[in-house]
Structures are given as C-alpha cells and as structure tokens.
C-alpha cells in the first residue's frame, strides 16, 4: 500500500513538474518586452498574457495543495 501511494505521488509530481516547465517555456518564449509601445507604457496584450500565466500557476499550486492530504494520510 505504501509503495502504491509513493508511486502515485511520484507520478503526480512528475505531471506537475512537466506542466511547470511548459509554463516557464511559454512565458520565456513570448517577447513580452517587445509588446510595449513605449518603455513603461501599459499594454493590454502583455497584461492579459501575464494574467493567464498567473492563473495557470495558481491552478498548479492548488493541485499541489490537493496532494498534501494524500501524503499525510
């Protein structure tokens, strides 16, 4: 039973790690600095992109938090 639980946790951690790497690549691949018309000027596209990224990161944190009761059970 412990071995099964450990394997399940490792699989879930690997999924989260893969998603995190993908999110990091997505944000690194987008030339956000080029989206600004003037230095310091706000751009709705950039703001929207960063908002989407923040929501995806928050979702991942929620998934990681849901794993905690499994580990401590």
Key terms for this structure?
single chain, 73 residues, mainly alpha, 3 helices, 84% helix, elongated, Seed_Dev/Stress_Resp_Reg
| Domains, number | 1
Q: Total strand count, please?
A: 0
Net shape: elongated
Instruction: Report the radius of gyration as a whole number of Å.
Output: 17 Å
Structural class: mainly alpha
**Helical residue percent band:** over 70%
What's the number of helices?
3
- Secondary-structure element sequence? HHH
- The averaged pLDDT comes out at 79
Beta strand %: under 5%
**Low-confidence parts lasting 5 or more residues at pLDDT below 50?**
none
State the end-to-end CA separation: 12 Å
How many strands, what sense, and barrel or not for the largest sheet? none
InterPro entries: Seed_Dev/Stress_Resp_Reg (IPR051886)
Written description of the protein model:
- This protein has helices at 2-29, 32-35, 44-72.
- It has 73 residues and is mainly alpha-helical.
- The termini are close together.
- The chain is 84% helix and 0% strand.
- Helix 1 (2-29) packs antiparallel against helix 3.
- The chain has one domain (2-72).
- InterPro entries: Seed_Dev/Stress_Resp_Reg (IPR051886).
């Amino acid at each position: 039973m412990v071995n099964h639980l450990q394997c399940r946790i490792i699989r879930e951690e690997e999924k989260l790690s893969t998603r995190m790497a993908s999110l990091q690549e997505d944000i690194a691949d987008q030339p956000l600095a080029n989206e600004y018309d003037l230095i310091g000027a706000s751009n709705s596209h950039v703001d929207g992109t960063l908002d989407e990224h923040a929501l995806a990161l928050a979702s991942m944190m929620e998934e990681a938090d849901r794993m905690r009761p499994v580990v401590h059970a």
